[in-house]
Amino acid sequence: MDQLISLSNATLGQLAIERPRYDRSRLTPGIVHIGVGNFHRAHQAWYLHRLMQAGQALDWAIIGAGVRPYDAAMRDKLLAQDCLTTLIELAPDNVSAEVVGSMIDYLPIVDGNGPLIAQMADPAIRIVAMTVTESGYYIDPVTKGFDASHPDLVHDAAQPDRPRTAFGAIVAALRARRAAGHGPFTCLSCDNLQGNGDILRQTVVSLARLTDPALADWIDTHASFPNSMVDCIAPATGPKELALAAQFGIRDVAVVTHEAFRQWVIEDEFCAGRPNWDAVGATFSDDVHAYETMKIRILNAGHQVLANAGENLGIETISGCMAHPGIAAFFGKVQREEIAPTVAPVPGKTPASYVNLIETRFANPRIVDTTRRVAFDGSARHPGFVLPIVRDQLAAGRSVEGLALVEALWARMCAGVREDGTEIAPNDPLWDRLAPVARAARTDPALWLGQTGLYGDLKQSEPFADAFCAWLVLIWDKGCEAALRRYITGTERHTATAS
Known about the structure:
This protein is α/β, with parallel strands linked by helices. The chain has two domains: 5-286, Rossmann fold (3-Layer(aba) Sandwich), CATH 3.40.50.720; 289-496, Orthogonal Bundle (N-(1-d-carboxylethyl)-l-norvaline Dehydrogenase, domain 2).
């Protein structure tokens, strides 16, 4: 292979793939995005890049930001290549690449978040967006309200001018804008949370209220927090992804691979304007809730259906799980019989057709999405994605057999050892709490459901609790594949309890 071209503004003209046709030196910032991971660069940054390719939105360029020390590594990588990213699209029958240039800078990551606050206080910034994971919004797991007792938020309330969190920095920046006579910006969550804009409003306004009630009222009245639904599978970057970039002749230390699918549905509530994202495929809707319910329940909960079974059986990727006959059949049955009935159609898409789409997307062998990545942070993802479906099924008097098996597979995974005896390394912020309970639940399954911070009162629901306990006993006794077969064939827990 010829000498690799290191990605930079100076080398764009040497590339043989699609690249920015706009003059990046003319771009000016309009968005700060906090949490510049692979998903953001394959999704929101791409939509903006497509507008720029059409000569639009040149005053909406992105400035990246982070608030945690580990964000500094990504900052260094991106600044070294002028904040350019190679996106490699992995369709089942084709691989293509393009370079995205909608990000123009990445702020320093320092204690107190001074540079971030100063940038957001600039009236040129009209949107502050974020991807900080589902567990990053300081939600009380029981009440679902604002967790003012969290040490990070206690710190930010005590030192509002030197905040530790992204939300504290947002409050500080909005305080500065109000004092200077400027209006607020739109706060846009791009995380997989039902009602993510409402949750972001709750966090920001509640934190402001701890120190400045008048500011909190001003934010609540004048800022906007649109709900949104985002979707695109963008696996973590490793040696395989770096090698793919090299196949296109590019040295890109922050390359991103992604599937040939994107979706972005947003409420059109922007207090300081917005790019015309709908011109490049985004959907503005007054009913984001219906779209996000379909996606969160069928795709995100579906990921948990697959990943925990895959981890227990030592299957490394999501496409590998879909290639396993037992797991694939389990996935299809749970989806069609217990998840899809809780989902309403959206324009152009029924729950059944969306299940079919997700099966195709998950089965794409080119997408090397690891079961470990998908299974990460189950303590947020199961209560957020799976358990609301359980509650809806119970309320409707319908079966929760498959969903109980999903939870039993998660409990088995959290014991920290696969069926072949290999270790499952800690993979959850609460792993130190989960693992001992998971091991004790081998002989007393009800202990797992006794974690009220996760399950609330579901331990008191006999249809769910009885099924869960029976499945977990069977999994430990006969193995995961035996439990999957029992469920798939319809013998379910009644036969399982007799084993």
